[in-house]
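Continuing from the previous page of notes. For each protein in this section, the sequence appears first, followed by its structure tokens. Read the first protein now.
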Amino acid sequence: MDRSRQIIPFQASAITANNDFEVSKSMNIVGRLPNRIFTLVPSTTVAILNSLPDPPADCALVFLCRKFYTSFSMYLEESSLFTTKDDSASLRVHCCRVYTTDHRLHATDAVPRQLCWLRLPRVLELRGSDAGSWFVITSRGLYSWGANSGQSLGTGARDIWVAPARVHLPGHGLEVLDVVPYDRATFINTNDGWFGCGAELVDLLGPDAVTAPQHLPNPRDYTRFHVGQGMIFAWTPDQLLAAGLNNNGTCGVGSNAVKVTPLTPVDLPPAVAGGVDRVVIASWATFFLAGRRCFVTGDNEYGQLGIRERRAVVPRELPFPVDDVACHQGLTIFCTDAGLRGCGVNTHGQLIPHAALTPADPRVWEVHVPTLVETPFPPTAIAVYWTALFIRDSDGMWHGRGKSGVVPGVPSSGWGQVEWDDVQALGPATAEVEGQGRGQT
């Protein structure tokens, strides 16, 4: 063994696999280490993996599983880390095993935030939703656990939080290829097409959708899905389909019905129908982005769609190119090649400062025509909250304008520097701005 290479000192917590999750003791490892570390306890490997602040590229971790075969070598930086949206727990996949800090999975009263081995078959893929629902594709089938308020785990459990369990798919010889989880719906792609489960899919698939995954109609046709605010959008190679809640025409299928079922083609021009890149859903307004063309439908009470009509049940195309869009409760920002264009609520001057308007100007309250938003620099990203607008500069610092005090740093007028953690806590809609040469100065 070559001892000439400098290995950085570090500390690691040794976690045993006794009773799956019991935390054993802590140990300090200081000084030089061998180039390869062997252990019969996978959690020790991950404790080392999780502790190195700057791991050497040539230090490989190899461990022996309980069946005493050597798992494949893996460099430290090749492990995958997942964190729940509320940062309540994290999961790490390493050498086909899953480790988690979620104390609800501990068999004993273990120390919170310690990485513990979740005993499952050989892990192939891990997927998670913003709500904290987790799906693992393993060598022996599909498993799920976590948040279950939308009954989307596919195990038939009714509790709001569920321990790991096998997901049973109807049929024989099914191979799970991918899982797309949302808060209240999950889509499972197999070699026999797509299945779905969850409370959001009951109208589409029947009441059994909360008990076990059900085959979608025409299951081999779909390429991807998007779910939000009670709506389901499904892509096929040549069209976009919609189902679910249709308040003020948000599904865009040309209907005033409160609900749309089954999956129905969105009323877009034929040349666009198969080329929709993204669907943005916000506050009973829906935006369809196809290249740089943007179509809008739904509620337009505050002018957030950027059109004259009070609502649109058939998607309407905006007259300017759009790179991205962010909308939150009646306030919309379009990212364009000319800069940021905004429309919707302006009660706190988040779009147009009130000092630039007379009290009788209707734009003090609402801006119905997308208007260029003046910014002190070309922004690289935006975050939209209904009472404030936030922009990021080229150095990564955030600035806000709108309701004073909505987060610390927003002044009574003009722009003020704010902390991203404060902005993120509001739950804003976000978008990246393509290029840094745009925007008003």
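Done with the first. The second protein uses the same format. Note its length before scrolling.
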Amino acid sequence: MAKLSAHGEELARINGLMVRYSVRSDGHILQNTGAGWKLCTKLKDRSILACRECAAGMLARQYRLAEERPAREAYKIALHGVAALKYRWEIDSRLGAPAYIDGNERAADWSSTYKYADRAPMPTAEEWDRLDRLYWAMKRESAKLAQPA
């Protein structure tokens, strides 16, 4: 387990769907998937200039991705609003279920596995329905972008 403070100043924090990255001033890039910060990679050139360039590049990629894939960005924002980082994968995996399962059934299914106090608050049926719509919009967007022009 890595300590953020042990790796200098934070230059950038990048939030993905299921992971969070922190670019540090000492040339380390740390990642957090919900189980704490771990070393992801080290930059070869650890000068502060190289670290800032790396941080700027990662932020530029995040902004470009948000512009190019608005449905993915909407899904990411909604998912981040509903669940803590370490539980996002569980929600995402349940959203791939057949379309006949509505929000109430999904909320009931979730509540049966949602036994631990640190998992509160539980997504409501409306939140499940909204996430489901955004999830499938993101999938359609990905399929459209994957088709050759």
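What the second structure shows: The mean pLDDT is 82. The chain has two domains: 4-68, 70-144. We return to this in next week's lecture.
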